[in-house]
Amino acid sequence: MIVKKTKNNIRKVISEWKKRGLSVGFVPTMGFFHQGHLSLMKESLKRTDKTVVSIFVNPTQFGPNEDFNTYPRDIERDLALAESTGVHAVFVPDVQEMYPSPSKTWVEVEGLTKHLCGRSRPGHFRGVATVVTKLFNIIQPDVAVFGEKDFQQLQVIRQMVRDLDFPIKIVGAPIFREKDGLAMSSRNTYLSDDERKSSLCLFNALKRARELISKNEVKDAAELVSALEDFIGKYPFTRIDYIFVGDPETLEPATHIKRPLLVALAVYVGKTRLIDNMVIH
Ligand code: AMP
């Protein structure tokens, strides 16, 4: 497996592949891999001749009081996991390489970023869209794979690719979960044993939402939100950041229960902010 730290060097590798007519898949990540990341890599490997993974904890998508400095990192372990999955190349730039001087140009996707994480993490999606644009320009993939775990991020990237005419096919991959249902996340390592138990409130609340809807037990979105608030509130150490019920395409809140319906949650468990979502058909 090829590992490159500079834009120039990874570009050389990829242009050699392109000269040979090979297709390139790309999986951007912040590292500290779990099975969810590896499932994205496998999806890319299935679809293209060569797969490139980037590992970059992007400072511009973290708020001033967020966990940029403490975000878990283990490059050696990540490289071993990527290699054993069959990845062809990994791009591991440092902050200086990606931002040699502070960015004066930003990519902002409007509308889709108004609610959910866009509301509670101002500037987050601007940082994401900008770094993904830079990575797309560096790697120039044919296909890029993103997880539905970050549902809003996936929709933001799809919109950006349409609006800016990137010749890249965006593929969404399903949420990979632990056996008990907790969505895998690098941030799960922050949880104490007791918090880990409470973290199940997210997936359990989504299942509860699906049940309430299928049995017609809630008359509108407000009633659903309120039922989920009560449900999550029973778990210790939890504080709800948001409960979103709305349209999976426009990411606008719904008043009525219609289908498909996106239910998306962000909940602090202790100090750790976890997200999860389900599209109910
Ligand atoms: P991250 O390293 O957290 O930035 O995530 C990199 C990519 O992996 C993003 O496209 C995420 O949506 C995706 N991802 C993270 N967790 C999961 C999961 N549990 N299942 C599927 N994809 C995931």
Describe the protein.
With 281 residues, the protein is α/β, with parallel strands linked by helices. It folds into two domains: 2-173, 3-Layer(aba) Sandwich (Rossmann fold), CATH 3.40.50.620; 186-276, Pantoate--beta-alanine Ligase, Chain: A,domain 2 (2-Layer Sandwich). The protein has ten helices and nine strands. It has helices at 7-19, 35-47, 75-85, 95-98, 116-120, 124-139, 151-163, 193-198, 201-214, 221-233, and strands spanning 2-4, 24-29, 50-55, 89-91, 143-147, 169-173, 238-246, 261-269, 272-280. Strands 1-4-3-2-5-6 form a six-stranded parallel β-sheet, with helices on both faces. A three-stranded antiparallel β-sheet has the order 7-8-9. α6 packs across α7 (151-163) and α9 packs antiparallel against α10 (221-233). The N and C termini lie far apart (41 Å). The model has no long low-confidence stretch (mean pLDDT 98). Adenosine monophosphate binds at residues 29-30, 36-37, 39-40, 146-147, 149-150, 173, 175-176, 183-186.
